[in-house]
TrEMBL record:
One of its GO terms (cellular component) is membrane. Residues 8-174 form the Glycosyltransferase 2-like domain. It comes from Ilumatobacter fluminis. The lineage of its organism: Bacteria, Bacillati, Actinomycetota, Acidimicrobiia, Acidimicrobiales. Coiled coil: none annotated. Belongs to the glycosyltransferase 2 family. This is Dolichol-phosphate mannosyltransferase.
Amino acid sequence: MFAAVRVTVVIPTYQEAGNIEAVLRGVRASLPDARVLVVDDASPDGTADIARSLADELGAVDVVDRPAKSGLGSAYRDGFRRAIDDGAEICVQLDADMSHDPTLLPVLVANVELGADLAIGSRYVPGGRTVDWPGSRRALSRWGNRYAAGVLGLAVNDATAGYRAYSSEALERMGFEAVRAEGYGFQVEMTHRLVRAEGKVVEFPITFRERTAGESKLSGGIVREAAGLVVRLWLADRRGRRERRRRGF
């Protein structure tokens, strides 16, 4: 079904030795013809070595070794650039911690094949949900998404979602390499740039599950970055509108 479209699944990793084999096997079972690109930030637990050891068995698994922990957004920018340069027509984002169900990968890809510039596996559309999250984290996530969508006018229910597929053409058109945010802020800024580039976004419901192995990368700094980013993007939009009015557009 997907052989005619070149798909690359980009998986950033840091300290994911307990999850990487399961996620790679899940990707291969769901998308047999996709290329998988593991972008590892020098994990001291051997994550990259485990991924490499599975490459011969699973096929089309490549590892990008980065010298230090450099952030989620940076990993995706590097991964997307590598994927597009190698011919990918669709680039998929997938967390390494098994919080995203790999069996839904064909749905992500199919939505882009059918014309979406961005397909999002959403926790916050009807049918979507989170499992095993404490109430405080669920509330923070819902508030953060409503805040970002309301302030920026995104008309997207889950702007911080990390389970995504982009058309490579849309990534280039939106200038993805100019995005500088990390963590949840990266997802928000990518969504904002795509919407401002008049890209088509499709959301479908997923169940997001808390990781069972390894440690969460969420921190107070990541949350503060995302909140401040929304204000900066709003100010940039406002300046852009003033400039367009000045020029008579």
